[in-house]
Write a structure and sequence with these properties.
single chain, about 180 residues, alpha+beta, 4-stranded antiparallel sheet, two-stranded antiparallel sheet, 5 helices
């Protein structure tokens, strides 16, 4: 990207790429300490790590990358959907009343649960493949937007993010980049 001047102040004196601003505003502290553990009577190493972000760094953080649902989420969804449907089908097919004898509807329901689980096991991988295909395009688009966004410029004097085509405050610009 060619360096374009800030649309407000007209200079590049106060402009930095978003990647540079983000890296400056991110601080990671790591360390370790030795302490005495009275329960074992030994010295113990303790490791710690912390990360802090400046307010500007937080404002410039892009939106979350689109992801897909896990296999666990899909199978849970289908089981939660199919078990009540199985219960209702049991009542309709076997014409039983749940308030009557317990075994009259529990046994048919128990017999219909394994097919419901089988349907869930078949539908889960099919839906995962469909989800992967549908989400792969949005991930590619997000990656492209993220590269452009990271190389866009931020003017510290005017609190504006800009490139050749568009400018705006960090929140508006991020929304524009990831929703166009």
């Amino acid at each position: 990207m060619d360096h374009v001047p800030c649309p407000f102040c007209g200079t590049l004196d106060y402009a930095q790429t978003i990647r540079a601003v983000f890296n400056e505003g991110l601080s990671v502290t790591k360390g370790s300490a030795v302490s005495f553990d009275p329960s074992t009577g030994k010295l113990v190493n303790t490791f710690y790590s912390s990360e802090t972000r400046s307010d500007l760094c937080t404002r410039l953080t892009p939106v979350v990358r689109p992801g897909g649902m896990s296999a666990h989420a899909f199978s849970s969804f289908f089981l939660l959907l199919l078990l009540p449907v199985t219960f209702i089908l049991t009542l309709l097919v076997f014409k039983t009343n749940p308030s009557s004898d317990l075994l009259q509807w529990v046994i048919p329901f128990a017999l219909m649960v394994p097919p419901a689980i089988g349907v869930s096991m078949v539908l889960t991988p099919i839906c995962m493949i469909i989800n992967y295909i549908l989400r792969s395009n949005s991930r590619i688009q997000w990656d492209t937007s993220e590269r452009i966004y990271a190389s866009s410029l931020y003017c510290h004097q005017d609190d504006v993010v800009f490139d050749n085509e568009y400018w705006g405050i960090p929140e508006e610009y991020a929304y524009y980049m990831f929703h166009r």
